[in-house]
Write a structure and sequence with these properties.
The complex is a heterodimer of chains A (about 270) and B (about 150). Chain A has about 270 residues and is mainly α. In chain A, about 75% of the residues lie in helices and about 0% in strands. In chain A, helix 1 runs antiparallel to helix 6, helix 4 packs antiparallel against helix 5 and helix 11 runs antiparallel to helix 12. The termini of chain A are far apart. Chain B is elongated. The chains are: A mainly alpha (about 270), B mainly alpha (about 150). At the A-B interface, helix 3, helix 4, helix 5, helix 6 and helix 8 of A face helix 1, helix 2, helix 3 and helix 4 of B.
Chain lengths: ~270, ~150
């Protein structure tokens, strides 16, 4: 184990501690310390990853990656679900920026339109239906926070150590399998990337596209069926004592509406039902 | 030039691993069903970032195509999972996943909250008041007194 690997181990343990401090617990007072330790851990991790080379590309990538990761941490640790959804939207924008950095313009736009524009809005609608205030007890307490923080940090740490260890000393076959600039200009980084993507998608992967369309149809029908079935099995509404009187009054009001101007007629049943 | 691509790949794989790990932590430790599903979507984002990076390194568009399919499947999954979460919420009136701990494995003891956080006091306003104007709309008494669902 050389110094670089020890620094990565330290970054992993500090990251675990930071996530444990930030996650919602019953007596969670240490979240500012969690932010500081998390920043230190991210800095240690970023110092061990090899830089890209050009300082312009490097700084843009670091800014995008910092936005994405910090927004992701905020998504899973905040106590109000609406704030979590909005920070998730910011992490989606960061991911779209990372896709654009890689040269896939279509994926950047598709992420913003579909993920941030449809899936996130569906989440917000569900939060409106189910948990609008956000101060519930289950938002401010978690279970197995220390174990999950340790597990997540160990996974990230092992992956980072493996990747940095292997990719800084790559085998010659791996280097040969990489692409030169000329190959990339004809492939992924071509002048009209969406045209090439469309050719590949509807050429080689046509069956997969059709299957994805069928899956979307099945999901649409399934979601409608779940909600319809849930509605039919709902317990009957609690009926108040004035329900029958109100029903007869509105029946009277509806029948007399067509005959005359209903100013006096409908005022009388409304007064009686109050 | 190849070293540039290699370092780009390393950087993106680390970001993908971070997103996946943070989503994993959120999924395992939160109790709100909506936040749990949001963390699952975060895991999918981490995998998408890694796929695009691998596609760029090997000059293969299949990485991006698979991410298109991941977005499609995530949309279907979001629709169905949110419908199911809504149905579960209407059964118990609560988005807490610990209420459904009857579905655990048989050798795991039931989960009991040792202590719950205090609820913050609900501050109700000074709400703005509007002077009443116009005719009162005709509403049956049921809807003004009690609304069982939105």
């Amino acid at each position: 184990m050389n110094a670089s690997q020890w620094i990565l181990v330290a970054a992993t343990l500090l990251g675990a501690m930071a996530m444990w401090l930030l996650l919602p617990r019953v007596r969670a007072r240490g979240w500012p310390l969690g932010i500081v330790i998390g920043a230190i851990s991210l800095g240690l991790l970023a110092s061990q990853v090899p830089r890209i080379g050009r300082w312009g590309a490097d700084s843009v990538f670091l800014i995008l990656a910092a936005i994405t990761v910090i927004a992701a941490v905020a998504t899973v640790t905040l106590r109000n679900p609406i704030y979590c959804a909005i920070w998730f939207g910011l992490s989606l924008l960061g991911t779209a920026g990372l896709f654009l950095f890689q040269g896939s313009a279509f994926l950047a736009v598709a992420t913003v339109i579909v993920y941030a524009g449809a899936i996130l809005v569906t989440f917000l609608f569900l939060i409106m239906l189910a948990d609008p205030q956000g101060g519930a007890y289950y938002d401010r307490v978690g279970w197995e926070t220390s174990l999950s923080a340790f597990t997540g940090a160990v996974i990230v740490g092992v992956l980072s150590m493996t990747m940095i260890g292997v990719l800084t000393n790559p085998s010659p076959q791996f280097l040969a399998a990489g692409s030169t600039e000329a190959e990339l200009a004809a492939g992924v980084l071509t002048e009209y990337p969406i045209a090439l993507l469309g050719t590949e998608l509807f050429g080689r992967h046509l069956i997969a596209v059709e299957v994805a369309g069928t899956l979307l149809l099945a999901a649409l029908v399934g979601a409608a069926a779940i909600v319809a079935q849930g509605r039919s099995k709902k317990p009957p509404e609690v009926a108040g004592p004035t329900d029958k009187a109100a029903a007869t009054q509105t029946a009277h009001g509806a029948s007399s509406d067509g005959e005359q101007t209903s100013l006096t007629r409908t005022q009388a049943p409304a007064e009686q039902s109050r | 030039m190849i070293v540039y691509e290699l370092n780009l790949l390393t950087n993106f794989l680390i970001v993908g691993a971070l997103l996946f790990g943070i989503g994993l932590i959120g999924f395992l430790s939160r109790r709100n069903m909506i936040i749990m599903f949001l963390s699952a979507e975060m895991m999918l984002q981490g995998v998408s970032v890694s796929l695009v990076a691998w596609g760029r390194y090997f000059n293969d568009l299949d990485g991006q195509i698979l991410v298109i399919f991941i977005i499609t499947v995530a949309a279907c999954e979001a629709a169905l999972a949110l419908a199911l979460i809504l149905m579960l919420f209407q059964r118990r009136g609560n988005l807490d996943i610990a209420l459904w701990h009857d579905l655990r494995e048989s050798n795991v003891p039931p989960y009991v909250d040792r202590e719950l956080p205090e609820m913050p006091p609900y501050e109700s306003g000074p709400w703005p008041t509007l002077t009443p104007a116009g005719r009162q709309p005709e509403l049956p008494r049921r809807d003004t007194d009690y609304r069982s669902h939105v």
